[in-house]
Structure formats: C-alpha cells, structure tokens
Amino acid sequence: MKTKRFFAGLSAFAIAAAMFPVSAFADDITIDQNSTDKKGAMTATYNVQAKYTVTIPAGAPIGEDADHPQETSITASGVVLEEGQKITVTLSQAANTAKGESAFTAKNGTSAVTYAIKKGGDLVKVGDPVAEFTANGEQALSFYKTGGTPTVAGEHTETLTFGISVEDSFESVLAPVLENGATMVIAYRWNDYNTTTFTFTNNNGTYSCNVGGDETQDFSGSLTLNGTTLALSITNSVMSSRINLAISFDTTNDTYSFVTKGSWYNSHTVSVNGTNITDKLTAKN
Predict the structure, then answer these.
(1) Nearest Cα to 148, choosing from 36, 64, 256, 69?
(2) 197 and 68 within one domain
(3) Less Cβ crowding at N or C end of the chain, within 10 Å?
(4) How buried is 245 (Cβ within 10 angstroms: 0-12 exposed, 13-18 middle, 19+ buried)?
(5) Domain total of the chain
(6) 214 lies in some domain
(7) Of the given ranges (13-22, 45-54, 172-181), which has the lowest mean pLDDT?
C-alpha cells in the first residue's frame, strides 16, 4: 500500500534535566556544658535531578483512509520527575492548519491532500495535548488521508511542531462530567428531613435532568456548561425563596461557589458516574 510522508518540525530528541539548588539547612546546633537539652539533630539530604527524554519521530506515514491508518508513536524514557508531576506533549503548531482545526493539509506546491490524526478514538486538533507521561511509556498516533485530489506525484508534507512541558498531574474529579454520556447526581437535602435528587446526563454538551425523591412535582433542575464551568440551578415552584439552590462548579480546580442558597438548605452531595466525590470538592464560599 502506498503512503505519503510528512516530517515533524522538532528534533528527534527533546531532553531536559532540571538542576536543583542546594538545600537550605537549619542553623547549626551548639551544645555546651550549660545546655539543658544535650541532643542535636542532623538532616542527611540527597537531591535527585529531574530528567526525561521525549522522542518525537522525524516523520510519519499517512495511511490511505480511515480503514488503513498508519501509526507513529511518541515515547518517553529515563523519566524521573517530582512527585505529582507529569510530562505533557502538545501539538502546538501545524504549517498548513490553523489552531483548533482537526482537518490537516499536506502539500506539494499547489497540490494538496487532507488528513486526520487520532489519539485512540479521538480526533486531534492543533493545540491539543497528544501525550502525557509520568513514567517511561509511549503514545501511538494514527494518521490517515481524508480527502483531496493530488495533482502532482511525490511527497506531500506538513511540518508539525510539538511542545513539551512538565506540570502538575492534577486530575479533576469533575472533568468526567464534560464527557458525552456522563452522569452527575446532586442529592439536595432541604430542611431536616427531605432529600430530592437531580440526575443530569450529558447529551453531547447539553444536560437532561431527572428528578427523584421528595416533592418531585414541585422541583425542576438544570445544568449548563459555560467553558469549564458548570452552572447548577434547582428551583421549587412552591417555596422558591426557601428552597431554590444555584451552584457554580469549576471543573478545572474542583471547586464550587454558592450563587443562591435558600434558607431551608441543609446539605448536598455530588456523584459523578456513580462515585461520590463530595469530599474531594472545595467550597469557595
């Protein structure tokens, strides 16, 4: 099977080693004949340098179609990072494709073909992270032609540039709510003895709501996504000022803020895809 090749605009190896400063020790302890406590503590310290090697292939073939993709892998080796950190590899630029676009273009003069890149089953866009590593490993990317009628023979290419960063490996417990098919359940306890539950299901970015528990006929709920913020609104048609509840959830930091809280508010719990995450969220007010 014939394939066409393009070349990545990054050297084959991206190597980094972070040097640590000399540790600052506490003041020396002096003990003499007049000291009450005739003991002293010493701290033995050995610093390990953070280091890693990320390998970006110099080129990758583009398969003829989605049924015959070609794979190329980005690899990480010799990985030694600080606790809680990760390496992120991002497709930061493409010579012929704008940021945020997933329809890539390989060219030979005025002749062009379009192609796609997939990470697992997801299309990759310019600007997307394409690999994350906390230890040695590899991430496969699939390339395949999606269209275009080339008018000249020879290699059709596009230069792709990858950026590498080391950052905290925080994983939001709210982020899965953004995925299609995810569920978020709010169990709202109002006054001392009533609990009404609101089950929200993500349907391609919009959320349906199913109300259960106490006094369901008087309640309605909505969950709206605005960027990375989820806006929860719970309204009661009978006792609105006492029961209405509105909360803003930040899915990047796992925090939430009360926008409206009726006087009968007692407590609430949050579950995502069947897991109670209430204790992992931080209230900001």
Answers:
(1) 64
(2) no
(3) N
(4) buried
(5) 2
(6) yes
(7) 13-22
Confidence of residue 255 (pLDDT cuts 50, 70, 90): very high
Is residue 61 a contact partner of residue 4, using CB atoms and an 8 Å limit? yes
pLDDT band, residue 26 (cuts 50/70/90): low
The reply to whether 110 and 200 lie within a common domain is no
pLDDT at 227 over 80: yes
Boundaries of domain holding 100: 4-20+48-168
When pLDDT is averaged across residues 156-163 and rounded to a whole number, the result is: 98
End residue of a domain, out of 134, 168, 202 = 168
Residues in the chain: 285
Residue 186, domain member (yes or no): yes
Verify that 85 and 124 share a domain, yes or no.
yes
Q: Is the torsion defined by CA of 225, 200, 176, 260 positive or negative? A: positive
Tell if the pTM clears 0.70, that is, is over it: no
Task: For residues 201-220, give the mean pLDDT.
Answer: 95
Residue 32 is assigned to a structural domain of this protein = no
Which CATH number covers residue 54? Answer: 2.60.40
The helix (run of H) or strand (run of E) holding residue 139 is strand 137-147
